[in-house]
Structure formats: structure tokens, C-alpha cells
Amino acid sequence: MVAEQLFIMSILLYAAGAGASLLLGKMDRHANYVAAITAFLAAVTGMAWAIPVLAGGAGFTLNFTGFIPFTQFVIRVDQLSAFMALVISLLTAATALYSLSYLEEYSGKGKGLLGFFMNIFIGSMILVVTVGDAFYFLIFWELMTLASFFLVSFEQEKKESTGAGLVYLIMAHVGTALIMLSFLLFVSKTGSFDFATFSEAPLSEGLKTTAFILAFLGFGAKAGIIPLHIWLPQAHPAAPSNISALMSGVMIKTAIYGIIRVGVDFLGATNYWWGVIVLLAGAVSAVLGVMYALAQHDLKRLLAFHSVENIGIILMGVGVGMLGAALEQPMLAVLGLMAGLYHLINHATFKGLLFLGAGSVLYRTHSKNMEKLGGLVKRMPFTAFAFLIGAAAISALPPLNGFVSEWYTYHSLFLAAKSGSWWVTLVASVVIVMLAITGALAAMCFVKAYGVTFAGAARSHHAETAREVPPTMVAGMFVLVVAIVILGVGAPWLVPAFTSVAASLLNQPAVPAAAGMIMYPGFLIQGTLSTPLMAILLVGLVTLPLLLVALGGGFGTGRRVDEAPWACGYAYNPRMGYTASSFAQPLRVIFRAIYRPQTHVKGPRYTSKSYFEGPVHYESHASSLWEDYLYKPLVAAVMRTGTYIQKLQAGSIHLYLLYIIIILVSFLLIATR
Amino acid sequence: MDYGKLILVGLLQAALIMLAAPLLDGISRRLRARIHSRRGGSIFQTYYDLFKLLKREETVPPQASWVFAATPYILVATLLLLAMIIPSITLMSPLGLVGDLFAVIYLMALVRFFFSLSGLDSGSTFAAAGSSREMMLAVLIEPAMVVVLLTLALLAGSTNLGSISVQVASGQISFLHPAFIIGLLAFLIATAVETGKLPFDLAEAEQELQEGPLTEYSGRGMALMKLALLMKQVIVVALFLALFLPFGGAVDITSGSLILGSIIFLGKLLVFYTLVALIENAVARYRITDVTVITSLSFGIALISFVFYLALS
């Protein structure tokens, strides 16, 4: 009973926040405070209803009167919905705190409107994951898409924003159309829009596969699966950073929710091919996503590409889960799905944190170009620390949360490799290796992201004069730092809750995956892990080197700051420091088949004089395979078709009348036949 | 099983690896001198070096932040934890509960992450070049290592290192299994790359990069960083030994078998270091872009090993 009331309260708070913010539109500052505070309260309320549902296991259903005759507005909350709502609320709470000061940047640019769309955006996400009716699902899905579209193209004066907004709008609607088609298949067989009837839809095997593929592609476009990802690295960086955090942290997860809902809940994941498709799509997205990320020197664009990577890792877990369900191996199914869900909440925390960190850098330096930053750790110590924790977590370093979920992903894949026929072993092993490559690349990428942005010497005036961001922004980031540590070190106590979400979805009993301080994938002999023990031992073992130094007399001698790093005897210059491009250079050479790097040199060259005469402009960038070979030809083909169709439109009324008559006659012929 | 006792064994093992690392380095330095027809220093020279460094004043560049200062401690602590997990003097993993193969891979990544970050943090160009190479090398060699580890884990039915060691030592995983032998070969290359010795001394290339990420370290920081690098070499070799040549490790936890296990472990390390010293004096350093040849060879061999597993299972 209480959960229901809290749910309604939280939705009403989002609505109130949106409305108030719009009304206060003229009073910029107040609008911002009202929008952020209501969003924060709504998020806390959201957590207050989601956590008991997750812990207690009992969901609820809310029936509202049908506003529209053929369908019912029904809210149906099960464990998965509660889990998703918890993830959204957690990140919203942190982001709302952060927004209080962050939005000062947007003074005089219509903060009222920003607050309005932000609240609508979050509220519609909560409704997307809780609504129990296909018709309303699509309405809220569209509301979420449009609100985020307006947020992406909020900075109208920037060409980057409007362009990104357009690509996003197109991709999102192609996706929505596919989802709609998939739902219509169910509706055509059950005659109802109610999700509850979907799982009993009498679909033939062929139609089931069609429904799944349509939904997978449709949701995949939103999730950013390669090659449907092209909007993502444009749209996420273009939005204000608090919105980027929400888009990357949670919005793309609603697509994962959709894939699980359709594939596992409605269709029961009966066909093992679906699992394989999801698994391979995940693996490809993970490896290519992180490779593209490495080539970036725009901090937010780099983070956006990492969302593609992490969606891939989440899909690996989901894929194993679906494979397990199809092969009728409940343990495999539950573990795989659990690994995917665990990584989902983890990614929300660390990617949210990293985007907020990037936002803080942007707030103080007005630049997201890493080449122009550097040395910020001295000037923005809290931001730097939070970013480092996020970077360590996303690189899956133990004992933080990214490691735990990747560990379970590895083990679910390992279990799959052990339990099936040889082709399952092959597929699972290939994916394990791809996950390992992803891990190594991600670590490299985040050493680069942190190192080039925060460490070394400042490479621009803005970076030199930066200072720490206001306390509320720091607080917003530290909420997520705490979440990361709890989700990592406290994992053994949280895992049972996550397995129960996966198990309830598959109608299976819970699988043993943690006991006391130890985690294990189903069987103890498979392998064990204990992040709390690991954390204790790591902290404990630090005393040994400290002791060694103390015994060796190291603390007695001083510590002196010398004037500059060693530079071969030359005077040190900040430009000598490594930049993002130089750090990733060896990789760009070795994997040139993927990056296809292009360099442009302008100015005098290849002469003895060229060293002394005039500036030389050097430019190097990686080109996008997908845009050049998939989307550009596609757009060209559409344009060509368009020109042909244009010939029909001659501008003559007589001709149009002729068309109408021809069509009428042909319809009549068909009808009377 | 007595977990308390096992943790003690783990601590013992960690201490042994920490203490043996400089000695093994000293021996290999002496060997190198002999190959050069020099007399060479004492085999304890590395200890003397480390203790001298501990007493020296530390000088840091102005760009360095707390990451630079904390890295030596983080590295040594993580490597000690690794030393406790990898079964070396025993067949069982003393700290099997804390981690398995996948955890070991990611603890290694933790070491690499901070090692590399410290280079960037110092602001020095040489250090940063070393950092970039360190991460690059991981990207190149990790796939091969994972394929071999996965094949072994599949053979053993468990990712627990101790469980694999026991099965190899007892012959449950046949030494003659093609997947095992070929995997051994691939992992040997990977081990050589990971130890960072010639011809794979890329990140800390002394003559070229002034020891890479170590460039700006001095005094106690330098001492701990050097110690960490030496320990890392031993641990990488210990991992190879635990997986492929675990014979002679202690089966039960009695002081007699533990001492015997330690002696056998040290003996195996000594053989390995002697071989490495011979190789080190016969080859030149690879260029970073040429290393791909070796790493892809290693990956290819690893794949063959995996295919043998698939075909024979």
C-alpha cells in the first residue's frame, strides 16, 4: 500500500517540478532551484518505494481509468521494474544535487525550460519501466525521446548541438517504429495492449523471432549497439553535462529493459539464436566501442563511446541469460541475467560520475578538449579524486563495482562454455576473449582520460586558472563515489537481491551466488571472490611498504619539489607533456585497419627552409568506418529514391487527379475480385 | 580446511617472494656480468641498492600529485596480495577464497593502471612514453594470456588457481594433452613479455626512455617502485609455474612440506632466471610496433591450443 502511494507521489513530484519550473521560466535562478530540488525529492521518494519492492519481492499494480477506449492505463511493478526505477532514482538524486550549481552556466538561456524538460525526461523514464501497457509504453517512450531531444539541442547557438539533435531524432524514431511493429505483432494475436497478455500470445516460431528481432533492433538503436550507435557519440556530448550523465547513465538502460522485457518476459527466450545474437552484438559493441573511445580527445565524446562499450558488456550478460533460458539451464540463465543487471546499475553509477566529472571540468575550463587541459588535479582535487574513482571502476579494477559485475560476466560465460555443446563453448570463449581485450583497452583509455586531463602540466590558460567547483556539485559526485564503493566492496550482500530479480523474471528459484563475505557463481568449486576481504587485505598490506620505508629510514629524509621534470637537459615546457593523441598513438598505428587515421599537413615542407619558414599545421583524425560505408551510402540511396519519386510530383492538378483515379480503380478491382 | 592457517601460509609466501625478488635480480646481474667476462658485483647488490635508496632524500617534480606519491605503496600492496593468491610453495591457493584467475588478471591490471598513471602524473615526457607503452603492451598480450588461462580453466573445470595446480600436479590434466603443451608455449611467450625483460623491456627501457614511468622517482619512492617491478617479475613467473609446472608444491600444511615446497619453488625460479639472463644477453630490444609480431604469434599458438581442447573434449 505504501509503495503505491510513494510511487504516485514521486511521479507527481516530477510533474510538479516540470510545471513549476516552466511557470518560473522568467525567474531563471528560482526555476533552476525548484526543478533540481523537486527532482531530488522525487528521486528519494522513488528509492523509498523501489528498495522495499526489491528487498521484499512483492510488486504492485495500479489501474487507472481508461482515458482512451481501446486501452487501459495500468502501472505494473515487478522486481525488474523496481530495479530499473532504483537505478534511475539513484542517478537522478546525484544529478539533481549537482544541477543546483551546474546550471548557473545556463543563466539567461532559459533555465526554466531546461528544468521543465529535465523533470519530464526523468519522470517519463520511470513510467517507461513501470507501465504495463504497450500503448502507454510507446507514449512515454516517445515523451522520453522528445524531452531528451530538446535537451540535446538545448544550446541552439551551437551547430554541434542542433546537428546532433537531428541525427538523434532520426535514429530514435527509426527505433520507435521498429518497437511499434514488434508490439503490433503481439497485439494482433492477443487483441489487447496489456503487457500481461503478451506472454501468452499464440505466436508461431517465425513470428516470435520476427517480434524479437524487431524489438532488439528498435531498442538497440536507443541502446547504441554498433552499428546503430552513430547518434550516441554526437548527442551525449552535446547535451548539458548533467543531462549527458542521465542519458548515458540511465536512458540507454531503458532500452536494455525493453530487450529483457520482450525477449525474456514476453517471449521466454525460447530460441537459442536470440541469445547468440545478443551475445555477439554485445561483444562487437564492447570491443569497437572502446577502440573508438581511445581515438577521441574530446572528453565527453570519449565517455559517450564508453557507453557503447558498456552496453556491450551488459548485453553479454543478458545474452548468456537468454542462452541459458533457451538451453533450459536455469543456473546459467539466472547468473547471466544477473551479471547483466549488475553491470547495468554499476555502469549507471560510474558513467554518471564520469560525466559529472567531465561537466565539472567543462564548468571551470570551458573546454572538453583534453589536449587543452592537464594539471587539474592540483586545482580541482575533489573532482580529480572522484573522476579517478570512476575511472578505476569503469576499468574494472578490484575491489570496485565494475570489477564485480565483469567477474560475474566472465563466470557466466565460463559456465556457458563448460555446459553446452562445442559451439556454445566456442561462442562463449570468443566472447570471453573479447571481454578481456575490452578490459585492457578500457584501462588504457582511462589512464589516458585521467592522466591527460588531470595530471601533468596545464596546457592552456583556462586549465591553469581553474578552481574547484561549488560544494553541491562535489556532493553530487561523491554520492556516486559512495555508491561505487558500496556496490563493489559490499557486493556479497547485494548479489542475492540481484539474483532474485533475475530469477523472478525467469520463474526460477534463486541461485546461490554469495554466502557470507564470499561470492561464487553457482558452485563453490567454479571460483570464488571476496571483495570485502580483498579490500581489507589491500589496506592491510599497505602497512608493509610503509614499515619498510620506516625501517629503512626513509621518512627521516625530506621531500623536495624540484623545479621541473627532466627534459633531456632542455628547459621544460608544458607542451612537452603527453597529450591524448600521443598516448594512443602506438595503438592507432597498430590498429590502423580499424582507425584508418588520416593526417593533414599544411604549410611548407620537405625543404630545408621548411623548418624555419612559417607555421606548419598538422591535423590527424580517425575516420568512422560505419559512417563512410553504411550511413553515407544509405543516406545517398534515400536521397536518390527521393529524386525519382519527385518526378511524380509535376505540379499539375490533372496529373494528380489521374493518380487518384488509377489508385481508386485498382482498389476497386482488388475489392471486387 | 583451516583458513586461518592458509592465510598465514599466504603471508609467508608473500614475504618469501618479496625477499627473493632482489636476490634473484642480483643473481641475474652477476650472471650477466659473467657472460660479459666481467667479475660482477655481489649477488646481494640489489638489496644494498634498495636500502641506499630508502635513505635518500626524495625529489619530485612540481606537477606530481598524490597519485605519484601513493603509487609505490599501492603497487607493493597489490603485488603482495597477488603473491598471496598465486599458489607457489603450496599446490592449493593460500588465498583461493579471495580470487581466481579472473581476479588475478584484474589485480595485474590494477598494478599496471597505477604504474602507468604515475608516469603521466609526473609530467615528464619520458615517463609518459613509458606509460603509453605499458598499457599498449597489455592490450597486445592480454588476449593470448586469457585464451590460455581459459583453456586451462576449461580443462580443470574451475578458475581457481589452486584447483588447476592440484589437477596438473596429480596428472588429472595430462601433461601430454596437446592443449596443455601448446598452451604452455603460448603462455611462456606471454610470461616473457610480462616480465618486461629484454627483448620486451619496452616500458622501462633504460637507455631509451630513462626507465619510463620511473623517470621522476627518487629516494624511497624509487626504492619501492624498483621493489615492485622486481616482485612483479617473480609473480608473473610464479603464475606460469603454478599453472604449468606446479610439481613439488606442498600438498599439506606442515612445516616440513612447506620448507620443501619453498626450496623447490626457489629452485624453479632460479632455473627460470638463469635462462632469462642467457636470453637477455643474446638479444636486442624490440621496437614497440614490432612487438605485435611476437604477441600475435603468441595469440595464434594460444588459439591452436584452444582448438585442440575443443576437438578433444
From TrEMBL, chain A:
GO terms for molecular function: oxidoreductase activity. Pfam families: Proton_antipo_M, Proton_antipo_N. Coiled coil: none annotated. The keyword Transcription does not apply. It is a multi-pass membrane protein. Belongs to the CPA3 antiporters (TC 2.A.63) subunit A family. This is Hydrogenase 4 subunit B. It comes from Thermanaerosceptrum fracticalcis. The gene is hyfB.
UniProtKB/TrEMBL annotation, chain B:
It comes from Thermanaerosceptrum fracticalcis. One of its GO terms (cellular component) is plasma membrane. This is Hydrogenase. PROSITE patterns: COMPLEX1_ND1_2. InterPro entries: ComplexI_Subunit1 (IPR052561), NADH_UbQ_OxRdtase_su1/FPO (IPR001694), NADH_UbQ_OxRdtase_su1_CS (IPR018086). The keyword Cell division does not apply. Coiled coil: none annotated. The keyword tRNA-binding does not apply. It is found in: Membrane. It holds the Pfam family NADHdh. PANTHER family: FORMATE HYDROGENLYASE SUBUNIT 4, FORMATE HYDROGENLYASE SUBUNIT 4-RELATED. Keywords: Membrane, Transmembrane, Transmembrane helix. It is a multi-pass membrane protein. Its main location: membrane. The chain crosses the membrane at residues 6-24, 64-89, 95-115, 136-155, 175-193, 227-247, 259-279, 291-312.
